[in-house]
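Here is the promised in-class demo. Please do not try to memorize the tokens; focus on the logic of going from shape to residues.
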């Protein structure tokens, strides 16, 4: 290690993930609001101001104020009027005719976009979310379309994404292939290639929708930091295994990018007791009743500014104006910055590839909108994209971001140092070298984040005494309740492994006093009963046994 300075270690680690940045500016956006809702117009004006969207590119349409809209209303009050405004403002230019895309049933020639000044459309709170099924739609069914896909309901976002091909008279039944799926050059996602990136600023309230913009800009300035959590199901075969593959692939992306990454590979979801702190990324899938569960049912969820969360479920975005129903609404109510969801049943293979999404957002520095559309195999279907599509958390190269935080004397620098450690852990550096690196980092003494990592490294080398002490110090410094819970439990576990039952006992006693509302408090009392017996404390064992019996006869916490 003496041949390489610690400064060189930082440079090598962060330079390894330096992105190629493609600028996205406000003049590449059209903003759409519902002129029947004052909050919708106010949000549109706010977004246009902070993102410098020309006022001539902010459009109001008189729309239904509900989340649902009929196919006829969608066509007459939004789809066609928006196309007329784009053409009239010369934002999209159409040229010579071409034949309809291969695989479509219509062979008529149609005008194609040859130039476009805009790439994005932002739909503001109040613009309907879902296009209802139309049983009277007179249209020839595409050849070979599977029975379960012979439907014409869709997400407004996903339908509008093909607006550049409106004159192609594409079928409304079933999903249509996204010709820009999987691209690694963001510039390809463009109306001249048939795709307009449509996202919405939406949520349970107009205030929540506005927060999506503020947090995106905050994360662009100071970085998107925190931890990554992934909830797979442990599937090893079958047609739904692809869902697990996407989740596991996403976990590997964030791990390689230097994030502290947790992958749950069991069929159950993360339990409510799981201490999920500092959430930068979350992705999971399935839940039998389709309602938000586990840690996300808590009154407060610790989303970091700029956080992305996604739960794959057939009806995760059936409504997004409720702070408690399904998944997307609760995510938005509790502080997520960007998400996606399904408005109707999509079927697994027609949902976004979340591993592809995160790879493009992190390594390739795509904007949120670019990453969202590069990850969707199909459009004109059920996915809604919620968040500022211009949000680009990794536009600033990591080394530049590191220096920026140092100059600002920002506490967030602890996360950049953590990234250095994690990137080198996946390389060929020994844990002992990284322990010395952390021990010599000046920020260590005041950083619960770095002390926790140091404790983890001690623990992995079976230095349980030092691990427990570092966990304890980190817990004392932490401002995050969920991190405090995790650290206190880790300190107790370290004492147990070190053969110090008295210290473990005191730690768990402190825990039940401090975190009496912990969802699995009964599990901690079980530890206290066993330790009291081991330490020959019969009266205390009896006391904890009574409390345990009281807890286990009460209604269990929802997980």
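The designed amino acids, position by position:
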């Amino acid at each position: 290690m003496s041949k390489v300075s610690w400064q060189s270690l930082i440079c090598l680690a962060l330079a390894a993930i330096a992105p190629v940045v493609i600028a996205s500016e406000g003049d590449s956006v059209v903003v759409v609001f519902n002129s029947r809702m004052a909050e919708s117009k106010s949000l549109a004006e706010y977004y246009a101001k902070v993102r410098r969207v020309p006022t001539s590119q902010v459009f109001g349409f008189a729309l239904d104020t509900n989340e649902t809209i009929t196919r006829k209303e969608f066509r007459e009050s939004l789809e066609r009027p928006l196309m007329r405004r784009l053409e009239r403002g010369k934002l999209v230019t159409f040229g010579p005719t071409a034949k309809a895309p291969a695989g479509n049933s219509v062979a008529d020639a149609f005008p194609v976009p040859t130039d476009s000044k805009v790439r994005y459309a932002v739909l503001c709170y109040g613009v309907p979310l879902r296009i209802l099924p139309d049983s009277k739609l007179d249209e020839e069914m595409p050849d070979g379309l599977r029975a379960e896909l012979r439907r014409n309901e869709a997400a407004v976002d996903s339908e509008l994404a093909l607006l550049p091909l409106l004159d192609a008279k594409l079928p409304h039944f079933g999903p249509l292939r996204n010709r820009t799926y999987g691209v690694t050059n963001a510039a390809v996602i463009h109306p001249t290639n048939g795709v307009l990136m449509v996202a919405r600023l939406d949520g349970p309230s107009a205030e929540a929708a506005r927060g999506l913009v503020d947090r995106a800009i905050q994360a662009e300035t100071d970085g998107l930091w925190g931890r990554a959590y992934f909830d797979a199901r442990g599937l090893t075969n079958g047609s739904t295994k692809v869902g697990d593959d996407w989740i596991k692939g996403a976990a590997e992306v964030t791990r390689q990018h230097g994030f502290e990454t947790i992958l749950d590979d069991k069929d159950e979801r993360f339990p409510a007791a799981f201490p999920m702190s500092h959430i930068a990324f979350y992705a999971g899938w399935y839940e039998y009743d389709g309602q938000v569960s586990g840690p996300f049912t808590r009154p407060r969820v610790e989303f970091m500014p700029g956080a992305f969360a996604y739960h794959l479920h057939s009806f995760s975005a059936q409504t997004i104006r409720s702070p408690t129903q399904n998944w997307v609404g609760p995510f938005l109510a509790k502080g997520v910055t960007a998400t996606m969801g399904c408005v109707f049943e999509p079927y697994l293979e027609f949902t976004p590839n979340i591993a592809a999404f995160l790879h493009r957002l992190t390594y390739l520095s795509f904007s949120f909108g670019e990453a969202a559309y590069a990850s969707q195999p199909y459009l004109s279907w059920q996915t809604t994209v919620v968040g500022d599509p211009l949000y680009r958390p990794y536009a600033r190269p990591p080394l530049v971001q590191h220096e920026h935080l140092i100059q600002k004397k920002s506490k967030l620098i602890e996360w950049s140092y953590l990234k250095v450690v994690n990137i080198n852990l996946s390389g060929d550096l020994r844990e002992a070298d990284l322990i010395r690196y952390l021990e010599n980092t000046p920020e260590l003494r005041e950083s619960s984040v770095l002390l926790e990592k140091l404790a983890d490294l001690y623990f992995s080398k079976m230095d349980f005494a030092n691990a427990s002490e570092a966990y304890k110090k980190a817990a004392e410094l932490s401002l995050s309740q969920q991190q405090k819970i995790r650290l206190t439990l880790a300190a107790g576990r370290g004492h147990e492994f070190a053969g110090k039952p008295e210290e473990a006992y005191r730690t768990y006693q402190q825990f039940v006093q401090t975190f009496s509302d912990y969802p699995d408090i009964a599990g901690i009392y079980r530890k206290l009963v066993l330790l009291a017996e081991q330490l020959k404390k019969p009266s205390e064992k009896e006391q904890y046994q009574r409390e345990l019996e009281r807890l286990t006869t009460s209604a269990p916490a929802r997980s």
